[in-house]
Amino acid sequence: MANNNSGYNRxxxxxxxxxxxxxxxxxxxxxxxxxxxxxxxxxxxxxxVSSTAPAITSTDHVLGNPxxxxxxxxxxDFECPACGEYxxxxxxxxxxxxSSILFVFRNxxxxxxxxxxMVGAQAAEAAGMLGGPSKYWAxxxxxxxxxxxxxxxxxxTPAQVLSQYLNGxxxxxxxxxxxxxxxxxxxxxxxxxxxDITGGNQALINHTPTFFVxxxxxxxxxxxxxxxxxxxxxxxxxxxxxxxxxxxxxxK
Length: 252
Description:
Helices cover 54% and strands 12% of the residues.
């Protein structure tokens, strides 16, 4: 008579091994989830993770109330179509809330997909270097208003974009074009842009535009009301009251 105990023992052994593997996998997964929850980023139910932007400094380009208790930071790319589409909305927010908030724009040129993003950032920074905050914001606004004019012809080189478009923009806002060209390639301009990029990388940015309220990343609002809700909540938390529709105090 055949002994069936060996088959029974093998089945039992495989069952025990399988159970151990499942338990071990569960422990590993739980440990990984715990590690992720301790990184200092806040995750919502839909998977959004809020990262933290570097603190605002004197080198930042700002509009609004320098003493505001709430800041709105945008990391943007002048060639990015989404940034261009957001620009009227951002302008509306600044126009109606600038007495209550401080707006900051930082460069995050996505050069791997936007061949003229860097030259656009250089143009804005050179304008600011040459003419101060008012010229910076004038160039900033022009680059977005005329985005479809200077950024779509990918047969051009960045140098050709500069000579055919950006120099004209500089002249139109009252800048000396020769000095503007020199400042475009200056180490000061390069250092400012790279500093913004480094900060953006630290904030784990993976798209433009990306917005931060009081240095914490927020999901991109899709309307003025969406921006106002987030900003009013931040103002309320800071004890500053709602934004309302106060007159602009920008330095444009």
